[in-house]
Design goal:
two-stranded antiparallel sheet, 2 strands, extended, PRP8, U1 snRNA binding, U6 snRNA binding, U2 snRNA binding, pre-mRNA intronic binding
């Protein structure tokens, strides 16, 4: 009974948050200044995975077709993405298969192509918005040219450069992130 009430409360909070976010950001999301540039960046990132592929299966051809269609008509693609973001209230199914290489298994996920394009655009939009609002320090922001190990190295260097970070002589401890979430939603929108 408690678990069901907790799930209902969580669902209500999620819906209220989504409704509040869509009301506050519907005007900015529908008329965003750099949205076509962000879409092109997202499409470039999605298209990178097909640069080396010689043979494509049906699912990959469909996704590449949607990417090319979005390149040809970005305004229509943006309106479809924004409509999808504001109206989608449920999760989509993700298919998973495993490639067996005898020594280990590699998971292969099948995600709806429109869902992939929407997620890629949302990722670019959120990173750009976070950068504008200075939500993250410079040394943790990923760059397109940086491989993940270099990003981890920069993160560690940023922490080690803090003065007396590892001093625990008086019982203190190191916390990676400590913040109050007051007005956090307003900074995101």
């Amino acid at each position: 009974m408690v678990h069901i009430l907790h799930q209902k409360r969580e669902l209500q909070c999620t819906r209220q948050l989504r409704i509040g976010w869509s009301q506050e950001s519907s005007s900015t999301l529908s008329s965003y200044k750099h949205d076509t540039k962000l879409l092109i960046l997202a499409l470039d990132r999605l298209k990178e995975s097909y640069a080396v592929a010689v043979r494509l299966n049906q699912h990959q051809r469909e996704e590449l077709g949607l990417i090319e269609q979005a390149y040809d008509n970005p305004h229509e693609a943006l309106s479809r993405i924004k409509r999808h973001l504001l109206s989608q209230l449920s999760f989509k199914e993700v298919g998973i298969q495993f490639m067996d290489l005898y020594s280990f298994l590699i998971p292969v996920y099948e995600i709806d192509p429109l869902e992939k394009i929407t997620d890629a655009y949302l990722d670019q939009y959120l990173w750009y918005g976070a950068d504008k609002r200075h939500l993250f320090p410079n040394w943790i922001k990923p760059a397109d040219s940086e491989p993940p190990p270099l990003l981890v190295y920069k993160w560690c260097q940023g922490i080690n450069n803090l003065q007396s970070i590892w001093d625990t002589s008086e019982g203190q401890c190191v916390v990676m992130l400590q913040t109050k979430f007051e007005k956090f939603l307003k900074r995101l929108t």
